[in-house]
Amino acid sequence: MLMAGRSSGIAALLLLFLSAAIQSEPAAAVKPMPQSMSESLILKDSIVKMINANPAAGWKAVMNPHFSNYTVQQFKYILGVKQTPHNALINIPVKTYPKSLKLPKDFDARTSWSHCTSIGRILDQGHCGSCWAFGAVEALSDRFCIHFGINASLSANDLLACCGFMCGDGCDGGYPIFAWRYFVQNGVVTEECDPYFDQIGCAHPGCEPSYPTPTCEKQCKVKNKVWAQTKHFAVNAYKINSDPQNIMAEVYQNGPVEVAFTVYEDFAHYKSGVYKHITGDEMGGHAVKLIGWGTSEHGEDYWLLANQWNRGWGDDGYFKILRGANECGIEEAVVAGLPSAKNLIRNFADMDGGADATA
């Protein structure tokens, strides 16, 4: 009877796991498809003309050179945010702030923490659906500088390759909140230790639409660096309440956050102004770093965000999106965590060459 009880319990756990897997089938990360001459390109002159002829659009569209040769399927593949199953969010705390907290009308983390060089970096995720990893390591890097004065660039490759199924499917997409859980449980090494595997971008001859997820090696590429010693941890992982006041308060007090939102065809054409969806089909989910907010000269409230499609896309790599209307779902999927001092004492001792460095 005891064995039967155990068997039924295991079966129940397996059913729960399978149910979660089915529910979490990505609405965002799209599997790469064979390229054919008949596939349409993501950039369309008709979309550019429609946006720019609409005085109510609020933003300018162009044929962005970053995606000049991308098909729709190739564009979909780099949108790597999977839809997190609801039952996986039960134990994730949601952070709120008092409404009485006074906040500035406009804010830019790049100027408020001008000594933190990581905040102003624009990266390139290349061929891989790794936006969920980039948004996370970029925000945590910024927070290490803001809270501890450390200008460290953390490794998207560590997270992408080593988090495994806990975070999703690597280059085939992942879950932003579980990236932050990885920081709590496993930490993340520096970019110097484990640089991103795809540094070429998608502009070179013979470019393929996707690369396979890199292998987790747990060994620094720089010989004098030790993997475990370069790990940077987070204290916690949490969501931020979707009310814009809470998101602003979190950024103002603790630094940039990771956000996910739904991308439509027209977003690929963004150049400047305050984006809002005007035309085109849904392409998938994308994660980026939110660094501030403000109000345009036309009176539109916006969020300021850093993308990871290099500086050839958008407004030198950045974009603004309508604030206060949950445009494209951007205010309902905001995640972050606080940096931990774990491992930092040893690192400071090593840098200072102190007597306790080997203790």
Automatic annotation (TrEMBL):
Question: What positions does the domain Peptidase C1A papain C-terminal occupy?
Answer: 103-338
For the keyword Protease, the answer is yes
Kindly give the Gene3D superfamilies that the UniProt entry links to this protein: Cysteine proteinases (3.90.70.10)
Signal sequence extent = 1-24
- What keywords does the record list, in alphabetical order? Disulfide bond, Hydrolase, Protease, Signal, Thiol protease
Source domain of life: Eukaryota
InterPro entries in alphabetical order: Papain-like_cys_pep_sf, Pept_cys_AS, Pept_his_AS, Peptidase_C1A, Peptidase_C1A_C, Propeptide_C1A
Q: Please tell me whether the keyword Disulfide bond is annotated for this protein.
A: yes
User: SUPFAM superfamilies annotated for this entry?
Assistant: Cysteine proteinases
Q: What family is reported?
A: Belongs to the peptidase C1 family.
State the name under which the record lists this protein: Peptidase C1A papain C-terminal domain-containing protein
Which organism encodes this protein? Platanthera guangdongensis
